[in-house]
Sequence to fold (235 residues):
Amino acid sequence: MKKILAIVLAAVMMMSAMAVTVSAADTKVMLEIGPDVFTLYQSPQVDVNASGTYTFTATAPTSIRGSSTGTFIGIKVVTGNNPQPTAIPDGTTFTVKSVKCDDAEVSFNADKATYTIANGNLDFILKLLEYGYSENIFDGEVPAFTTIEVVVDVVYPGDEAPAADETPAADEAPAADEAPAADETPAADETPAADETPAADEAPAETAPAPNTGLALAVIPAVMALAAVVVSKKH
Fold:
């Protein structure tokens, strides 16, 4: 009986240790590769604790035939087909920016190259077409390799978009809108010479001879009086 209890206790302790290993979530992740899911090799862990660009490099002891449907490439938290709990917040995106197999660039489908963390788990499979999985971000065949480098952009929720969206030069310097020369210097409106110096109104030359008209009117009575005197003398 004591032997059975000891075995049960040992089994419980082992399961508890495994549970702690799997559930001890942090922000460290790694790149895992292999010729199949039973033979896997890992990159060093990288602490993805903030938005940024991260590089993962994994190396296998022998060449991996990348065109095989069983070839495994993935960004994982722990090795193998286990739960992948992470402390990286839900909504964080992992976007593959480049892949090199033995220094040779490999093309991939950008529409399939983004993974969003959900339910506290990170299990980004880049390639595996067996055992019920159909993930494959690559456009064509992946060449055979021993070393693979994957560069990933990580964006935490609320952080800014990639640099290409941050510098829209055309929008920031609309020269044509900022200096509308025609509207700012309407010369014709500011210097209406004809209205400001109406010579005809300020100097009405036609009314100047008024004094001459008055003199003529004053002479008329004197002439009439002189004529009356002459007439009276004649008589």
Residues 25-165 form one domain.
